Amino acid sequence: MSGQGAGDGKVWERFVALGDSFTEGLSDPHPDEEDLYVGWADRVAATLAMHNSVRGRPFAYANLAIRGRLIDDVVVEQLGPALEMAPDLVSICAGGNDLLQSRTSVAHVVERVEDMIVRIRATGADVLLVTAPDVSWVSMVSRVHPRLVEYTAHAWALAQRTGCLVVDIFTLPSLRDPRMYHPDRIHLSSEGHARVAAQALWTLGLTPTGPDDWREPLGALPALSRREALLADRAWAVDHLRPWLRRHRGGHEAGEGRTAKRPELLAWDHEYDDERYEDSGR
């Protein structure tokens, strides 16, 4: 089965990733560098670099995403520098921090995302737009599920209007598993990032090979008793929800003072490539 981008003969040489902590890579720790994360976008870049290397084509990558950024921050801080790099592929996964808070409307997030897509598409570059995940099964976090559903519906409409490609993680069944997430129930684990990267590669027309299917769920976990579930929710509230609320009430964001981990469009190798994913004939 081929992805949305299969068969169009394209080879991307300049990839720029925009967004927040999801694209920065939290919580997928770098194996060698402290306080640096890998993430789905780095994994996609590594595979694209490998494919271009086989063809004798150059490849460069920048990741401008910074944790805690709201949609307006991404537009103001990241879009301009990205356009100056003249990319031929841009990923957008932004607005998640807004959707977690009721003070920003879904309509505003969609409007800002569409503005970014239109400006990028006007340069001739392709856009990878990532949907929201399905969190209906996640205890406590599920209260924001309706807003994520609404945004995801709009994402597909944006694709119809602008011709961008949609990385649909909302319907990815393997993500409906706590092992795909950090204990904070928001950020992806390394395995979760790997699954999202595979979905993005498929969207670009790459065919997964090997025994593992990124769409298939892991083996079932033992069911928690009611008491165990309540204790887990209580621990999550103390360890993650309470600090998050305290920070936001104080007007502080997670990424204050941080800069992008890969702010320049530089040649990129394939240190994170996964040999399970091969070229589908592009």
TrEMBL record:
<feature type="domain" description="SGNH hydrolase-type esterase">
    <location>
        <begin position="17"/>
        <end position="195"/>
    </location>
</feature>
<protein>
    <submittedName>
        <fullName>Lysophospholipase L1</fullName>
    </submittedName>
</protein>
<dbReference type="InterPro" id="IPR036514">
    <property type="entry name" value="SGNH_hydro_sf"/>
</dbReference>
<dbReference type="InterPro" id="IPR013830">
    <property type="entry name" value="SGNH_hydro"/>
</dbReference>
<dbReference type="Pfam" id="PF13472">
    <property type="entry name" value="Lipase_GDSL_2"/>
</dbReference>
<dbReference type="InterPro" id="IPR053140">
    <property type="entry name" value="GDSL_Rv0518-like"/>
</dbReference>
